[in-house]
Amino acid sequence: MLLRVTLYLLVLDFINTYLGWERVSRYYSIFGMFSASAGTFSGLLLFYCIPMSFTKTLLYNALRKSERIFKTDMVYAVRGGFWLLLGQISTSFISFGLAVAFAHLISQETYGTYRYILSFVGIIMSFSLSGLSPALTRATARGHDGTLMQAFKMTASWGILLSGILASLSLYYALNQNTTLATGLFIAALTAPLIDAFELATSFLNGKKLYKLISGLGIIRSVLSSSFLLFCLFFYKHLLFLLLAYFISNLLVMGFVFYYSQTRLVKNKTIDAEAARLGKHTSVINTFAAIADRIDNILLFHYFGPVQLAIYNFSLLIPSNILSLIKNIGTLATPKLVLSDKEVAKKTLLLKSTSLLILTVPLALLYIFSAPYLFKIFFPQYIEAVIYSQVFAITILMSGALPIALFDAHVALRAKYTLSVISNTVKITFIFIGIYFFGIWGAIIARILSKSVGLFTAYILVRKI
Predict the structure, then answer these.
(1) Buried b vs exposed e over 321-330: b needs ≥16 C-beta within 10 Å?
(2) What are phi and psi of 273, to 5 degrees?
């Protein structure tokens, strides 16, 4: 056997050295059948010895042919989507590992309080100029690199006001003897607005289509943040140390990403004249959405306490990560849609959305059936969250990534306003009623119903833009 393999390697080396792979590429299939007993090994050798150019050509041709089915640029989707997917999967695994540590190393009360403070800070930060992110992606895709610094200055200036609000709330809780919440809000006042401004670098990179870099930086951010938190979980376990680790690690990483983007990747100083106007309008829309997305945590903590909030957050954990993977499609689509004809994009959107739905059905079913085993192995302390999580998995089918990407790309402000008002009004109303009367079940059902209404509304609005 060893002799046959050695001879096989010598033959391959001779072909590569004296004949060249290009001249004999049509005979690759014959070489793969030299020996039945060494078939598997032969396949591996051919995989590593076939030139990358030949493999890329085969893949390129296959992707181009598949465009007849998916009605989209599959080469771009796979090239950019691979790195976005790799980064998101890596981040999801790291987040999952961190959740396992939270479940085993701190009490449900502590974790529930930790989630409450982050949600509280998130609601205050929802009044930031978050709409500059999609505006910056659009501007960068059109070659206006100088918009990054303009957006940063606007966000940082507005952040001073938000920092003052957080500091004032911190003082209020300190005077009312709530030291934990007072200290947590003070930490957020010093860091959260800066993190928000530095986050614009990610939108800039999206506009540049630097998905490989985005993926790598996202993994670094997750690793560093998780390392800080794990250190605190093992050695301190105090809520304030956890908050400090969370905010400081994110500040350091995003500060570096912004500095790198501004000094190495900005190629001109031209500014998109529409970016500021678009960003302000979109920020109003995003504020409503951000409040609607976090109000359930505030209400559950207020009415039912930190333990129920902890259970609720663990029920959302895995389905939300799966949804984040799917939403990368919207991130990937926006720069392409900016340069596409609106009417052509509208005509193909329904077909692409149907293809996306077909791909997500197996994901949802797989999770629903595997959830009891996952919780039993990794989160035994939160086993009662299983049924909530299985029902919430229905939202995996409702990402709505493509309509939102189309609205962002073609500045459909009226459509975005309408969608935001309808979907978030429904969501907040359902959450208030649902949580008050039914607790966690009310929050889960409210999220599903509001997601359905929002998705239905989005596709109606697509036809009207």
Answers:
(1) bbbebbbbbb
(2) -65, -25
Q: What pLDDT band is residue 7 in, cutting at 50, 70 and 90?
A: very low
> Do residues 441 and 388 touch, judged by C-beta distance below 8 A?
yes
Burial class (CB in 10 A: 0-12, 13-18, 19+), 302: exposed
The label of the residue with tokens 């401004």 reads 197
Cα separation, 427 vs 446, whole angstroms: 6
CB 290 within 8 A of CB 123: yes
Residue type, 239: L
Spans of all domains in the chain:
2-59, 80-272, 275-323+337-465
What pLDDT, in 10s, does the model give residues 319-367?
998 887 777 665 566 556 655 666 666 666 777 777 777 888 899 999 9
Q: Is 343 within 8 Å of 65 (Cβ atoms)?
A: no
Whether the full predicted model's pTM is greater than 0.90, yes or no, is no
- The pLDDT confidence band at residue 263, using thresholds 50, 70 and 90, is very high
What radius of gyration do the chain's Cα atoms show? Answer: 25
